[in-house]
Amino acid sequence: METIINTIVSGLISGSLYAAMALGLTIVYGVSRVFNFGHGVIAIIGAYVTWLMLDAAGIGLVPAVLISMGFMFLFGMGMYQFAINPLLKKPNWEFSTVLFMLGAGILLENVVLQIFGPRVKSIPLFVEGRLRLGFVKINWHDLILMGIVVVAVILLSLFFKYTRMGQAMRAVAQSIPGARVVGIDINKIFSYTFGLAFIVTGFSGILLGTKYYLIPHIGWEWMVKGFVITTFGGLGSTSGTIYAAIILGVVEAFATLYFGAIWVWPIWFAMFMIVLLIRPQGIAGGRL
Amino acid sequence: MLEVQDIDSFYGELQVLRQVSLHVDEGEVVALFGPNGHGKSTLLKAISGLHPPVAGSVKFNGEELSKLPVHKIVERGLAYIPEERNLFTDMTVMENLKMGAYNPRAHKTIKSNLEFVFRVFPRLEERQNQYCSTLSGGEARMVAIGRGLMSETSLLLVDEPSIGLSPGMRKAVFEAIARINTERKITILIVEQEIENALALSQRFYLLKNGQVAFERKASEVDVTEIERAYF
User: Fold this and answer.
1) Whole-angstrom Cα distance, residue B2 to residue B59?
2) Yes or no, beta carbons of B89 and A175 under 8 Å apart
3) Residue A22 pLDDT more than 90?
4) A280, part of any domain
5) What is the Cα–Cα distance from A233 to B168, expressed in whole angstroms?
6) Is residue A188 part of a domain?
7) Do B70 and A171 touch (CB under 8 A)?
8) What is the percent of chain A where pLDDT is above 90?
9) pLDDT digits (tens, 9 = 90+) for A166-192
């Protein structure tokens, strides 16, 4: 019983981190139908920029995160304006954008490698120590991470529900022709969507960078996890992404406990393929 | 109010509109008839900027529209209500209607426009919190018309509003369009296959055939059979 509850807790912690990480992918895909194959490297860049601010510039955690988020926003908008937008105007854009982002990911991974080197880095824990509630043991840091993810998800859903920009993003996600007819500037919304998604993605990279470690190629592992989670949850559905991340996080924890970490991927992919076969639209439908 | 001059429009290599000219005056309801696939929808899409014409001019209150993007055209006060509806399916009826008022000029009139929409379509008031993916075809059409109305435009282009609807729904939709014109003073250019109903609410009509204007007439001067004959 003790082990089971502790395993569930540990699954919820990684699940919430995965949710944060996969949301950026869902937002970009949901609104623009572009599947970002450079996603993991984008997350890594957010983490490295923050590390740079903390370590090299020596500023505090909060300003470091804010600066890095500002950078990610401009980076996302720039990526859209200079690369994705021209590609979207051509036939076969579904395929060319995937290949472009894959290529950009490989290139950027090497840029990160050149700048920061191959040595493992990490962003320090927010708080040391652990909380004990009877037999349940949770690191304070993990608890804070979960709290941050919950707050971030609430803020995002409020943004999508109540702000003009968020509503326009949902409208574009649900019907591009409908959005044009009511006078939404699609190009502007795509551009802000990339900015927002890069912020969310970079932010998740920071969270992951505190829990695990930072090394340039780790982004690809995150990307594949994000890919499985978003498809499992239903491409373009934010709630689906969150459910899927939690489910897969808990599955991962149990798989590690009973079969060993090496079995996590096979089990994830088996579940993923079963869901695809029975319910190709993922566990939850809907868009944003 | 609207002055369309010699527009040509293509889909790929295929020329759909040839030198089409028409005009709509303030306060009018003008109908656009013609066989399917002869360019009626394309003409509305050309005017509203969704599929800009390759040549020719579209003047709205004296301003050239043909080079403007759709969202700028909506801001000028001209909106298109698509036959395909294109609703935001994972939003409620209310959210869809409010999205119609996205352009800045529509913000101030959200409340009065909403009241008007609910007056002409009481069904939508009952269903305001329902998701659009769960609506019937007729209700979805009402939302599409209501959403267009929320844009606070002075000219509405309405594309086959009655297509696929039950006779009862059709009647409700035509009544609503007549009231939009008389009570809201909104000028309307409507594409319709229901010739009789459309003639009853319009002052003039154009007949579009093979991408060209075959003729233009006052609605009171013709009967339905004459128009139907022109289809073949």
Assistant:
1) 6
2) yes
3) yes
4) no
5) 41
6) yes
7) no
8) 82
9) 999 999 999 999 999 999 999 999 999
Q: Domain for residue A237, yes or no?
A: no
Q: Which domain covers residue A23, as residue numbers?
A: 2-221
| Beta carbons within 8 Å of A13's beta carbon, 6+ residues apart | A138, A142, A145, A146, A211, A249
Contacts B81 to A, Cβ<8 Å: 181
Where does the pLDDT of residue A193 fall: very low under 50, low under 70, confident under 90, or very high at 90 and above? very high
CB A208 within 8 A of CB A51: no
Give the pLDDT mean for A228-252.
Answer: 93
Other Cβ atoms closer than 10 A to B12: 6
Spell out which chain A residues touch chain B, with contact meaning CB-CB distance below 8 angstroms: 164, 167-168, 170-171, 174-175, 177-185, 286-288
Q: B203: which 2 tokens?
A: 């002052």
Mutate to test the interface with B, among A157, A161, A182 (most CBs of B within 10 A): A182
Of B62, B61, B45, B63, nearest to B7 by C-alpha is B45
**Best interface-test mutation with A: which of B65, B70, B129 has the largest number of A CBs within 10 A?**
B70
**Cα within 13 Å of Cα(B53), Cβ side:** 28
Query: Are the beta carbons of A181 and B70 separated by less than 8 Å?
Result: yes
Instruction: Report the C-alpha gap between B118 and B115 in whole angstroms.
Output: 5
Tens-digit pLDDT profile for residues A34-46: 999 999 999 999 9
Write down the residue that tokens 């995160």 correspond to.
A65
The number of domains in chain A is 1
| Dist. CA A233–CA A256, nearest whole Å | 22
pTM here is 0.92
> How high is the pLDDT of residue A134?
84
DSSP A230-247: HHHH-TT-HHHHHHHHHH
Identify whether the C-beta of residue A245 lies closer than 8 Å to the C-beta of residue A228.
no
Q: pLDDT tens digits for B11-70?
A: 988 999 999 999 999 999 999 999 888 899 999 999 999 999 999 999 999 999 999 999
Distance CA A205, CA A40 (A): 8
Compare CB distances from A184 to B71, B79, B90 and report the shortest one's residue: B71
pLDDT tens profile A3-17: 899 999 999 999 999
Distance of CA B197 to the CA centre of its chain: 15
- Which residue of A167, A177, A286 is in closest CB contact with B99? A167
Q: Is the confidence metric ipTM above 0.90 for this complex?
A: yes
A15 is a domain residue: yes
Domains of chain B with bracketed CATH: 2-230 (3.40.50.300)
Residue A73 has phi, psi (to 5 degrees) of: -60, -50
